[in-house]
Amino acid sequence: MTEDEEPLRIVVADDHPVYRDGLALLLGSVPGLEVVGTAADGAAAVEVVREHLPDVVVMDVQMPVLDGIEATRRIAAEAPSVGVVVLTMSEDDGTVFAAVRAGARGYLLKGADQEEVVRAITTVASGGGCSVPRWPGGSRSSSPWAPPARRRRSRS
């Protein structure tokens, strides 16, 4: 990041205070990232996005009041320029695809290291999509952000 570039503005939404605050502190220490808000539930995440209009929200799925899937859906509808990276413990395909259908552009497991999380944030902020290195239930090529496989034409 050069001096005249604005940092990426991040919101962290997770109902576990130690994880939420720790992740916010960790991300805030990365050059080029600025944590502008945190939220303890999905409804608060939607409000924080309305207030701060971040570049990216790092969103847990299982939260009280409003879950992360519905919060993602509302954020995608109200602020489509805001990217959502889901960061969760859930590896099941149903949760993965519900997040994608809701508008998430990234999906990582909470076991991801700092480098993976930062890479996901920057990729999503630049308009790309990302997922866990090994996609739940299959290979990385089954990621909803992977390019479609080319079909072979039969020679007749």
Which strand order do you get reading across the main beta sheet?
Answer: 2-1-3-4-5-6
Q: Mean of residue pLDDT?
A: 86
CATH architectural type: 3-Layer(aba) Sandwich
Under CATH, the topology is which? Rossmann fold
* Number of spatially distinct domains: 1
Protein name: Response regulator receiver domain-containing protein
Keywords: DNA-binding, Phosphoprotein, Transcription, Transcription regulation
Pfam family, one: Response_reg
GO molecular function: DNA binding
Q: Can you walk me through this structure?
A:
Helix 2 packs parallel to helix 3 (68-78) and helix 3 packs parallel to helix 4 (93-102). The longest helix has 12 residues, at 17-28. A six-stranded parallel beta sheet has the order 2-1-3-4-5-6, with helices on both faces. By secondary structure, the protein is an alpha/beta fold. It is built from five helices and six strands; from the N terminus they run βαβαβαβαβαβ. Residues 138-143 and 145-156 have low confidence and may be disordered. It has helices at residues 17-28, 42-52, 68-78, 93-102, 114-125, and strands spanning 8-13, 33-39, 56-59, 83-88, 106-109, 130-131. The chain is 36% helix and 19% strand. It is globular, with a radius of gyration of 16 Å. The protein has one domain (8-133): Rossmann fold (3-Layer(aba) Sandwich), CATH 3.40.50. The N and C termini lie far apart (54 Å).
